[in-house]
Amino acid sequence: MNKVHLPGETIGIIGGGQLGQMMAASAKEKGFKVIILDPTDNCPAAQVSDKQIVAEYDDLTSLITLAKECDVLTYEFENVDAETINEIKKYTDVPQGSKALLVTQNRIREKEFISENHFPVVPHAIVNSVEDFVIAISKLQYPIILKTVEGGYDGKGQLRIDDEGYDKDEVEELISKGTCILESRISLSKEVSVVISSNSDHEHSVFPLIENEHHNNILHISNCPARVGTSISVETYEIARSIANKLDLVGTMCIEFFIDTENKVYVNEIAPRPHNSGHLTIEACNISQFDAHILGVCDWKMPEVKLFEPAIMVNLLGQHLEPAKNQITDHEDWNFHDYGKSDSKYNRKMGHITILTEDVDSSIQQIKENPIWND
Ligand code: ADP
Ligand code: MG
After folding, report:
1. DSSP letter, residue 298
2. Residue 334 lies in a domain
3. Which residues bind ATP (predicted)?
């Protein structure tokens, strides 16, 4: 049993982006005080919290200050140093521990964890040099994808390679950034994700299967429930529960799956935190992935998840936000989320829209026809 945390206590969050913001909003609703640590002054999470400590994520002195000021500490992303977590545990309760962080912040450890536990893994090879790369492509077939082992997100640190006519300089440049992993490119029929939350008693809240469509390797549209057969849902839920138990999950985690054209399921990635594909749970379910995160971290009971209505989420990147704002008054069905980031950039996640609808196919069609998302 972990320590139970109650309203009136203070939750510290490392990282103040949109995930931290939606976590903080859920915690505030329940009566907690919230302190954010983030280097950007007035970051999205700070805008809905009690206090911000402006500091880098690896600034140990500031992290210890945060730890001393809060009753329980959590994080919004996996790139928190596991050693640092062990250090700040001396000053406050860190119920998530560092096991899930260690496994998921490095693509090699993640793939090892997936294969050691006999979950279906994408064929891959570790690449430390151009020589390794040449040997690895002789074992894996084109098309392939080369990824940096650490720090990648939203398709950053990735190189897609279709055939031997690839650009050797690009390969060399990516490998010069650090160890890489080379993966076979799966012929995808769908991508799906399971968002699952747990308390320390391994009681789970499991959200209905979500289907994801990416553009330029960045999540574009999610819809729930996923349009897949029962056997795929059952298989992915079983894997998700088992991964949650093996990682001693506390709080919310998301497992991304690939489904190939022969309906074979692969575990792609594990995120030890709420996930972009789970944003639609805010409006579509009795508890959101952020509520479930707070419940798990505070060691409350985990409710059974109910889906009120099928839902679609579409991301608003830097190039989409202004045109989308201009259409707000035309769409009474839009649940509009603007994260309040001061710095808008092309392809940066700035907000999202959730639509509840019984007619998922035609709503997705309308999004695709809307000029907002042409780019
Ligand atoms: P991240 O989400 O950290 O950027 P991912 O490994 O999830 O990295 O890759 C982003 C997207 O790129 C995936 O959701 C998928 O659409 C595509 N992709 C990545 N790896 C593969 C692969 N091995 N086969 C097919 N598609 C892939
Ligand atoms: Mg991913």
Report:
1. T
2. yes
3. 107, 147, 152-158, 183-186, 191, 214, 268-269
Domain that holds residue 28: 10-94
Residue 5 lies in a domain: no
* CATH number assigned to the domain comprising residue 176: 3.30.1490.20
Residues 87, 155 within the same domain: no
Residue nearest to atom 17 of ligand 1 (CA): 217
Which residues participate in the annotated binding site for ATP? 107, 147, 152-158, 183-186, 191, 214, 268-269
> Does residue 108 lie in a domain region?
no
Looking at the structure, do residues 165 and 258 belong to the same domain, yes or no?
Answer: no
Q: How many angstroms does the Cα of residue 115 sit away from the middle of ligand 1?
A: 18
Strands (E), the chain: 10-14, 33-38, 51-54, 72-75, 124-127, 144-148, 158-161, 180-184, 188-198, 204-206, 210-215, 218-224, 251-260, 265-271, 311-317, 335-338, 349-356
Instruction: Give the global pTM.
Output: 0.97
Q: Residue of the nearest CA to atom 7 in ligand 1?
A: 269
pLDDT digits 0-9 by tens, 198-245 = 999 999 999 999 999 999 989 999 999 999 999 999 999 999 999 999
Q: Are 293 and 197 in contact (CB under 8 A)?
A: yes
Q: Residues 208, 61: one domain?
A: no
Domain co-membership, 128 together with 232: no
